[in-house]
Amino acid sequence: MNLTDYVLEVVESYRRLGCTRTAETYLSTLRSMLYYHQEDAPIKDIFNRTWLTGYQDYLVSTGLSRNSIVFYLARIRSLYNKAVQKELINYQPGLFEGVQTRSEPTYKRAIRAKTLKFICQADFSKYPCLDFARDMFMLSLYLQGISFIDLAYLRKTNIKGDGSIIYQRHKTRSTVTVAVDNLAWRIIEKYKEQTARSPYLLPIIKNPGRDERKQYETALRAQNRRLKKVARYLGIKDNLTSYVSRHSWATVAYHEGVATSVISQAMGHQSEKVTHVYLKSFDNTTLLKANDTVIKAIFGKLAYSQVQRVTRAQPEYRLRETSR
After folding, report:
1. How confident is the model over 314-321, as a mean pLDDT?
2. CA 245 – CA 240 distance, rounded (Å)
């Protein structure tokens, strides 16, 4: 079997399972492999030591980061293992010895509290696209560091009667309870008219039911591109991305003394496995206190005390899901 046919078969199997993003990673790997090899070839000619080390050297020569190199090589290893299991090729002991298939921890992406405050208070009224990017960045922070994909897929039905938001993370499938602050409600209310006919809470996926994954990916690229413009406009040297707000929430919370176990649950992490075994789930009061701590650290206790808290969900959002 040739490489292209084999990888496309794997891709299709993931798509049938609904794992669109995983399927795309294998397609990206296939394109990289073909670019290096210059032509399609039987998989037995690909999965050997000579080809593998040559491909790794090629990736290094392109200047890719270690984790980007690992991205491709780890998927090649997965493709190899799948092919062995299907008896398409023979097992080769030690084939991946010395090959980089483990990523290294990424550098810290959090930014300081005063920078977050500066971004929040900036006037982008003349630049609607940058204003929207800033709002989504800050909303991610206010909602306990919610990731952009989970922000995009938030539905109005995720809002509960006590004003909290409960959603399931796309990455880990864990359930997260968000203590929604008044600052977050202000942003949600700001875009209410744009989502009047949508089941989604925010205008990120604008055409529900029409290739939503593609809409999300397009929105994510636009968000990161606009955040770079926000940074340039404000003279911020930090690299702003959609992930920065998430990491910043966790970092500010940690430095303000919020327990790691609370941070873990607030963000839907699975790294605190032992903690979750013997600790009961934190109630909304505990999560709200953690969120308060982060926001007060950014805006200051005096300024924050002047903001009235919303303790109930806005009536218009306590509705049944809008039909498509």
Report:
1. 44
2. 8
